Amino acid sequence: MILDRFSLTDKVAVVTGAGRGIGAATAVALAEAGADVVVAARTEDQLRAVAGRVADAGRKAQVVSADLNDLEAVRGLADAAVERFGRIDVVVNNVGGAMPRPLLDTSPEYLAESFHFNVSTAHALTHAAVPAMLERDGGAVVNIGSVLGRVSGRGFLAYGTAKAALLHYTRLAAADLAPRVRVNGVSVGSVATSALDIVMSNDDLRRQMEAATPMGRIGAPEDVAAAVLYLASDAGAYLTGKVLEVDGGQQAPNLDLGLPDL
Fold first, then answer.
1. Which letter does DSSP use for residue 219 in this model?
2. If you placed Cys at 185, which of 101, 103, 170, 244 could pair as Cys (CB 3.0 to 4.6 Å)?
3. pLDDT tens across 98-146, in order?
4. Which structural domains are found in the chain, ordered by start?
5. C-alpha dihedral sign at 181, 16, 86, 222
6. What is the sign, positive or negative, of the torsion defined by CA atoms of 121, 38, 222, 220?
7. What pLDDT does residue 262 have?
């Protein structure tokens, strides 16, 4: 049956930024597909709640509370997966972000910090996890990017540049690791997570986002989680180096941040 190709039964996944939003939805989706999951983020209480949902799906979770801006902590997630579950099959690099700033307030140091948090962390975990994948049947890496890695938007120079780099990293890593490890990405549009709390609580900003999205709505974390499951499972077995645009059809910036003119 075609649905069997979406199964991750007895596989092991590592998901960063898994305490809430897209990361939490993804961890639960992978568990519902049959995977045990290492869930990592800064806030342990949130991770424990996600681990409970993984258990409700009949799978096991390993909680790792850590500062994922620390590359040693990120590398350690691979060890945690192998120590607890004996293998790694799927890596979801979901940690990242950067606050909007005008260009003249975006120092070179801030740009470097954004690159570190969005790209270097993804590479650190991928680099640490691939040897374990190669000891078995290979695996899949899914990097969570952003529509702002493809379109321009005032205030998003650091974040958009970093996400564009992450998505091209995806293509380059896929070429290096084929055919045994597939590397793909998801370019995410406006999704109702805690990062959008200020938008969701402001009717004017919310309407701006909805109007700029052809689908006419703000996405749900599960919209992204479903794409990750496709890329992580045998359903996506013939894809590598590709980026799925889960953005409601966005082709332009979606929000006026009210930044001052030069």
1. B
2. 170
3. 888 999 999 999 999 999 999 999 999 999 999 999 999 999 999 999 9
4. 2-246 (3.40.50.720)
5. negative
6. negative
7. 66
